[in-house]
Amino acid sequence: MGERRTYGLVCALREELGSLRERARPLRRELGHEVRELEVEGGRVLLCESGVGKVAAARGAAALLAAGVDGGILVGGTCGGLVRRLVPGTLVHCTRAVQTDLAVRAGRESQACDRLRAAWLEVAGGEQGWFLTADRPVLSLWRRIRLARAFAGPAVADMETAAVAAVADAAGVPWAALRAVTDGATGLGAVSFKLHFPSQAGRAADTVPALLARLGRAGPP
After folding, report:
1. Domain that holds residue 84
2. Which run of H or E residues covers position 52?
């Protein structure tokens, strides 16, 4: 068995914490965020409902680090698919996160930890692709097409991942992200999100115990 580590999970909304939120106990408040704690096979996970957007997500990630996260920061939740095969219900693992609306190119991209991503893919399955993080929802077909053309290959849109990744990178802590698609590459983004969010919100978070068990069995990197 490997060394037990403390991992952090950032989700924008309460529903995206899935069943883990009810299983976890309140631990402390950091930077205005409630941090909850859950012991699972393979380690300990701290949960943070950050709120929507890059600023809130960055504060949430910083709160988890201040509360003792040392094994890695995970991002869970939902996203919008930017290519046709990423239909609602598809789980997508992040390979690289990009702050798409940042004009300065230097430092706007972060690469997910290969070890965490491979272990999460093993226990949860799904597709892999770039996470394009924007300051507002990418719901219109025009904005989806524009983003898809700017980045080759499979990609999804979200509002938090790149910010969490930047904080993790600055702290020297590995990170990974998994999201479930609620709305595909069509003109019905808002309608599809409302339809699929209730069933997809917590799917990524609910796989975290299996991920930590897998990492625990694998031992230290």
Report:
1. 5-216
2. none
Q: Cα dihedral sign for 17, 144, 193, 126?
A: negative
Distance CA 84, CA 115 (A): 28
Please give the structure tokens belonging to residue 166.
Answer: 């930047």
Contacts for 149 with CB less than 8 Å, ≥ 6 apart: none
Quick check: helix, strand or coil at residue 111? strand
Over residues 38-97, the pLDDT tens digits come to 999 878 999 999 999 999 999 999 999 999 999 999 999 999 888 878 899 999 999 999
Q: Is 196 helix (H, G, I), strand (E, B) or coil?
A: helix
As for how many domains the chain has, the answer is 1
Q: For tokens 């990524």, name the residue.
A: 204
- Cα gap 211→120, rounded to integer Å: 5
Torsions phi, psi for 48 (to 5 deg): -140, 125
Q: Which residues contact 146 (CB under 8 A, 6 or more apart)?
A: none
Any domain includes 184: yes
pLDDT digits (tens, 9 = 90+) for 129-187: 999 998 876 656 666 666 666 666 688 999 999 999 999 999 999 999 999 999 876 66
Report yes or no on 221 lying in a domain.
Answer: no
- Measured CA to CA, the distance from residue 108 to residue 153 in angstroms comes to 18
164 SS3 class: helix
* CATH number of residue 165's parent domain: 3.40.50.1580
Task: Judge contact between 145 and 130, C-beta under 8 A.
Answer: no
SS3 label, residue 103:
coil
